[in-house]
Amino acid sequence: xxxVQVNVKxxxxxxxxxxxxxxxxxxxxxxxxxxxxxxxTLVVLEDERTPKRKTAGK
Length: 58
Hints:
- With 58 residues, the protein is mainly beta.
- It contains 1 helix and 5 strands.
- The strands form 2 sheets. A 3-stranded antiparallel beta sheet has the order 4-1-5.
- A hairpin with a 2-residue loop joins strand 2 and strand 3 (18-23).
C-alpha cells in the first residue's frame, strides 16, 4: 500500500468494489500496483515498500 494524493480536479475510482470520489488534494491509501497504473493522476507521498533510511548520527 502507498499513500497518495490526488493530482487532478476530480477522480472517481473503484476501490474494493465501491466507487470512491476524490477531489484534488485528497489523500488516501491504495495498492502500489494500482497507483503505478494511474500515472500522473496521483502523487505518491509515502511508499511502504521502500524501507525508511536512518539519518546519520541517529
